[in-house]
Amino acid sequence: MHLVRSTKTLIQNLREEGWDKLLKNVTSFCEKHDIEVPQFSASYVARQGRSRHQKDHITVEHYLRVEIFFVTIDKQLQELNCRFNDQAMELLTLSMTLVPKDAYKAFNIEDICTLVDKYYPMDFSEQEKINLHFQLQHFIVDARQDSNLKNLSTMQELCTCLATTKKSEVYYLIDRLLRLIMTLPVSTATTERSFSAMKIIKTRLRNKMEADFLADSMIVYIERDIATSFSSDSIIEHFKSLKERRAAL
């Protein structure tokens, strides 16, 4: 998050102060390699479509600086601000308080409660929000003493450890919050992959596929690396056990 903030600042500084240096470097490069350098003070003439409507006072330098240099940088800043807006930055920053690295150095009960109140209000009842505060107090004492919880570095490791040690049943609210955070999409890659998969699966000959079947098929296709680890026999045995359990009920 600090790198994102500093990147925004550096790009903004480049926009405000970087033009002269860039122009000097480009001009030097062109002269070195015998590339024609345009007259920057000359009037810019559009080559396609706009020459009759453009303003006469626009110079070549103005066009390159405003229409190309500024526009390119503004697009980069816009993408960063869209992907890492203030709300997303705060969400990710608050989420980092649950990272167990360095003996839970970033752990902060108030920040975690703020995270739940602000971003996950529908996933916890009012009573659970109160209980979460006390669970966090017990958890941090336990985590710094328990050898299984001590040397962890990621939220995934923490969630796995809680499950294997059965402490997810004790700290069930913390476990729920960890799972919610780990399913947080940080990019549009998953969405883009889903649309690509839809084009492959739902063809013209299969356009009447029902929504549930399409969703299941897409999950298998998108997560094919995981799906290939399951054998046909294991799937058959799983469904067989489900049928036996239903019969027993």
TrEMBL record:
<dbReference type="InterPro" id="IPR012337">
    <property type="entry name" value="RNaseH-like_sf"/>
</dbReference>
<protein>
    <recommendedName>
        <fullName>HAT C-terminal dimerisation domain-containing protein</fullName>
    </recommendedName>
</protein>
<dbReference type="Pfam" id="PF05699">
    <property type="entry name" value="Dimer_Tnp_hAT"/>
</dbReference>
<dbReference type="InterPro" id="IPR055298">
    <property type="entry name" value="AtLOH3-like"/>
</dbReference>
<dbReference type="InterPro" id="IPR008906">
    <property type="entry name" value="HATC_C_dom"/>
</dbReference>
<dbReference type="GO" id="GO:0046983">
    <property type="term" value="F:protein dimerization activity"/>
</dbReference>
<feature type="domain" description="HAT C-terminal dimerisation">
    <location>
        <begin position="168"/>
        <end position="225"/>
    </location>
</feature>
